[in-house]
Amino acid sequence: MGRFFKSYILVGLLLMYCATAMADGADRIVQMPKCKGTVYQLLEKITEKTGMMFIYDSKIINNQKRTEIKKGTYSIRLAVCEIVGNTNLDIKSIGNHILITLPVTHTAAPVRLRKRNAMCISSSREHCLTSRHASRLKQVRLAYRGRQ
Amino acid sequence: MNRNLYNEKTDEAWNKVYAKLERNGLIEQQHQHHAVGAFMKWGIACAAVLLCIIISAVYITNMRTPQMLTQRNDEASSTLVKTLEDGSVVYLAGNSSLQYPVHFQENKRNVILHGNALFDVAKNKTRPFFIDTKYATIEVVGTSFNIKSNNKVSFELSVSRGKVKVTDKKGGNNILVSVGETVMLSPHGLILRQTKAAQNGQYNNCIRFKDETLANIIRVINMASTGAKLRTVPEQASRRLTVSFSNDTPDMEAVLISEALNLRYTVNGNVITIR
User: Fold this and answer.
1) In terms of Cα–Cα distance, which of B176, B180, B177, B175 is closest to B190?
2) Residues forming CATH 3.55.50.30 domain(s) in chain A
3) Residue B14 domain-assigned (yes or no)
4) pLDDT, tens digit, 9 for 90 and up, residues A92-113
5) B79-95: buried (b, 16+ CB within 10 Å) or exposed (e) per residue?
């Protein structure tokens, strides 16, 4: 019985390890103490705790803005949103960097409306295919179509 | 005729009145009052002029003393890189701070350093570069050198390019430091010796840029890189970025910068152009 229980624990731990390893760097868990300071200082705190470094256009984040974060367990993504005070950000990891950008805006593509499907809507979105090493491979356009 | 007589009598009467007033000292008092009034007027005028002079002096002093900004690096394990207005690059070590003006003065460039930093000063013979530390003042024309001035080391400076003049604030002695030399501050004054190990390496392991222009970031990356060189186009040069790099390859740096600023990059031999 004990042996059986031990193997369950081992499998559980293995699964947890795999899940952590496969997760995006931005989903890594970070334990944050309660702290106040500028946005830059608090993001520095995340770097200190996780080793993940940030990269972002200074136009989208005000480094000097004073902010605070409550003590707790956060994913890096959530901690960044809390610190910056903006949930409308694209946060992803490239190597040991956390890239913060504004979400890609949807552009409406012209579509021929059919009588039968007058309420049909369409949108398209630019995507970049990236290799394992994060280098850009190809720019593609995906179109979405459906009934409203 | 009668009218003249009448006027004479009036004058006589007035003279008598004045004589009486004078006897009683009333005329005298009136003179004093006038004198005090005049004195007051001159006093007010002088005070106004003095006030104008003081206000002008304060204004001119403020105009001449440039507004100082502070860059602080609280993270001990990384280097914060700051490119100053004149193109000089300061690699600020952990737990150090640098005070610098928004615009340098016409005849000199002054900064204040607390802690350790590596300076790569842009050459300008007409505007010498002065660094004020707790124990010494450093004068440079155009060179690269490392300064240690923290709790462990009171003052130490190593030159990797050019020449630097160091003045001991306490003793007033100065010494010229050349390439490969290190000057230290001892209780007996400044001591010159040969530099034991290269000082620059420690600053390039993990470098951080805060709200820095793309042109300045690329310049610093290229200074440290022996491999591929990064370039950008003038239209993108002034875009500002906040980023940290830790021993990343130029290719990886190009990928990250392009992604962050939504740009593309092209590779042409040993040159990666971000546009």
Assistant:
1) B175
2) 25-101
3) yes
4) 999 999 999 999 776 555 555 4
5) bbbbbbeeebbbbbbbe
Nearest Cα of chain B lies from the Cα of A77 at a distance, in angstroms, of 16
Q: Please state the separation of Cα B104 from the chain's center in Å.
A: 6
Sole residue written with tokens 């605070």: A68
Q: Is B59 strand, coil or helix?
A: helix
Identify the helix (H) or strand (E) that includes residue A109. Answer: none
Sign of the dihedral through C-alpha B171, B172, B176, B181: positive
**Chain B contact set for A56 (CB, 8 A):** 241-243, 260
Query: Is the confidence metric ipTM above 0.90 for this complex?
Result: no
Identify whether residues B6 and B24 lie together within a single domain.
yes
End-to-end Cα separation, chain B, in angstroms: 110
- Asked if residues A48 and B75 have their Cβ atoms less than 8 Å apart, the reply is yes
Domain count, chain B: 3
Tokens 């081992």, residue located: A10
Per CB-CB distance under 8 Å, the chain A contacts of B255 are 94, 134-136
More confident residue, A58 or B171: A58
The answer to whether residues B74 and B185 belong to one domain is yes
Residue B101 lies in a domain: yes
Q: Is A48 helix (H, G, I), strand (E, B) or coil?
A: helix
Lowest mean pLDDT among A131-135, B134-138, B231-235: A131-135
> Domain A25-101 classified CATH 3.30.428.10?
no
Q: Which position has the token pair 């002088």? A: B46
Find, among B233, B244, B166, B232, the residue nearest to B208 by Cα: B244
One domain, residues B269 and B234: yes
Q: A57 and B211: CB-CB below 8 Å?
A: no
pLDDT of A123 > 60? The answer is no
Q: Give the residue numbers spanning the domain of B12.
A: 2-64
Q: Is residue B171 part of a domain?
A: yes
Q: Same domain, yes or no, for B16 and B113? A: no
Rounded CA separation B217/B238 (Å): 10
How far from each other are the two terminal CA atoms of chain A, in whole angstroms? 56
* B177: its two tokens: 């430091």
Q: Give yes or no: residues B179 and B224 share one domain.
A: no
**Bridge-partner residues for B97, per DSSP?**
B72, B114
Angle formed by the axes of helices B250-261 and B214-224, nearest 10°:
170
Residue A59 and residue B262: Cβ atoms within 8 Å?
Answer: no
